[in-house]
């Protein structure tokens, strides 16, 4: 616990490597202070609620398509308005406040089943409700006026975000697609550096650093583009952006395959002079420059001349021919280098398609663009399907909703009994701190408490020397802008300036300049309640969740390989749609497992599982996928009966081994021994059988790649075994598995 506390203390002061959201901060400050000033000047009864509606609705605007932003902000405005009315009415009748809080807060916390945007809306609705409870209306008409004031402030925030800022419907999609080419360029540059003699472990570091980030960027662009195109009948800019997105995805896959093949080259094949990898490094740098050109063209909508890249696989082929003429290459080395030249040529073809499309991005639509996989415009899913799926205590969302509902109700009860000054600050702290997982809750509690203490001390200092209302309003505008601008950097900094803003605002409104200690005490009470609710109400440790996430990633690896195996049985290339779907599923499953692992590291636990085997399992889950991507880049495989028999036996053994490995990780047992993959494909064995020998003679490169895949599986198997050696043995782990071996 002491070590975990020190790690969380470091995380409190850790800054994210991003820029402050200055534009969002200024917009939030305007959304907050314009209603405040107008309401105060006109002596409107709901001035506070105008400001609350404006600030919260502006806070919801996270970017993306304008259609999605309008839905998110409009939905939040309605939810907050209804919450203000119901909270005001419930506050008039203390007997109703407790059950109403339990039902309303639990219901809105459960809204997280519909995604991150719904989760944020639910949190704002619940927060508005508890504020209304703490500031109850005197009459039903007063409660209705509060709701209307929230709608008024929200309407101003929506006008500010969606009207006063220029409306360019495809700008969010263009920026998202341009970001895809930007991360692809960074990956190409990393490969170029690594192939020129970096340490051997640099390949693994590059995969861990880049693959997950690029997949997340591609998925974000896919979601943004789908939301932008929803309901639009045009087939111009949206179609071209779709083509560009598919080109970026294809270039990413090409770079994965290229990196895997380059790593397999090992040390220089011809000494320091004439190493063909120098030509590859130059081509990769030129590829990165082409991707940067695409970033510029997409962001500017093709207002520049089309670049004419000169890189492809020709320089490598020339170097390869020279080495071959001098007899410096083995058959396998020649095959690997030829395959690298092929991959470079195919990437150049994809880049040409992207450049042509980007240069026509803003022009009239005269003909169909190059073919691309269409984004499915499905009908919206039923709102009740996720509800039915999560109505079980096994659902993390339901457990979290119940936990938040019960803890917030306890905070409301404490406030009703002891009646502390500004008691709703306690309940707001509970709602803000509590997260679905223990680690993030613990971290956010530290940030919230420490930030409130610092912000409160600053408020005391400011109130002691500055009480001029005009100067104070100017200062509060700056602190409100700062608090929102700094959210991406550090939540603790946001809390510092949010505390300073709202304490000074409350002191101005009440004339009581001693509210800072009240805010600190109420935050401490709320933080203690939030941690108690997290630790004692239906808590499930990340140690219990992580094995299922890791097993899902391993099974996604198995499904990816299964697409290749089915293609080998047919004697043709893999089905493109199935391959793309399996690859995306694998990328998302791996991201989920890595996120769960990070939560595991940040979770305060009494017992700590060995970390190194888990890190190896995660790392080589991606390495296994990289080799599969290289195999998927092959246009065909030899179709002789002996080769097909070798591939069939290899595929059956690999499928069974991966399923057994996933099951072993999930159920905390030792995996079964691996079959002899070398014998199945005739790799480095003295007397291979007929099928293995045929594979080695007819397709040495394929044989080498299959052996590489088997090595990745061996590392996964060894890591899973080491994990079991580090865990205490329980009776359930000694039970035999019901999963059939390979």
Description of the structure:
This protein is an all-alpha fold. It has four domains: 20-167, no CATH class; 170-360, Methane Monooxygenase Hydroxylase, Chain G, domain 1 (Up-down Bundle); 397-539, no CATH class; 542-726, Methane Monooxygenase Hydroxylase, Chain G, domain 1, CATH 1.20.58. Helix content is 74%, strand content 0%. The protein contains 27 helices and no strands. The longest helix is centred in the middle third of the chain and has 29 residues, at 331-359. The radius of gyration is 30 Å and the shape is elongated. The two termini are 42 Å apart. Mean pLDDT is 80; it is low at 269-273, 364-379 and 729-742. Keywords: Cell membrane, Membrane, Transmembrane, Transmembrane helix. Residues 411-532 form the Integral membrane bound transporter domain.
